[in-house]
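re: ur msg from earlier - yeah i can do the flavin mononucleotide complex, just paste it... oh wait u already did. ok heres what im feeding in:
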Amino acid sequence: MDLVAYFSASGSTRKVAVNLAEAAGAELYVIKPAVPYERRDLNWMDKKARSTVEMADRNCRPGLADTSAPVADAERIFLGFPIWWYREPAIIDSFLEAYDFTGKTIVPFFTSGGSQLGEGQERIEELAKGAKVLQGRRFRAKAEEAELRAWVESL
Ligand SMILES: Cc1cc2nc3c(=O)[nH]c(=O)nc-3n(C[C@H](O)[C@H](O)[C@H](O)COP(=O)(O)O)c2cc1C
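and the outut:
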């Protein structure tokens, strides 16, 4: 089966993930941090904001609320997130280290203010040991099911 596992702080990636799960006939799983991000944690203008501090440390691995994603049952995992500081949020790194992805295919997708995945592509490839990682793709929050279905069929 296909799995759509996503993290979304303010809802844009969630919209894409929900439509993608529908388009791909996939199960949906929400990646949740043990401590939720509050609005003030997301202020990238603030050097002391939680997200700024976490993203400045490439080894930061925020705790996960649970490790019950059905990764073992999935052949292909669509991994969704917003771009934070030109790459994947640290909680995605936590997720990638919490499961065994050997033999699985990971397909990153993301929303952003315009940035592409950058170094995030290589980071995901390194963290998801034994997995085949496809090229990540950016979507607008408004991406419709037809666009997402066409993408899934092209993979
Ligand atoms: C802490 C933080 C850092 C961000 N860094 C970037 C960035 O480097 N490039 C970019 O295009 N957008 C950046 N954004 C914007 C988000 O990627 C964009 O708003 C995204 O669609 C939010 O998704 P969400 O609603 O699922 O959380 C950042 C947002 C936050 C909160």
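cool cool. Residues 8-14, 42, 44, 51, 82-86, 111-115 surround flavin mononucleotide (CB under 6 Å). ping me if u need the other ligands too
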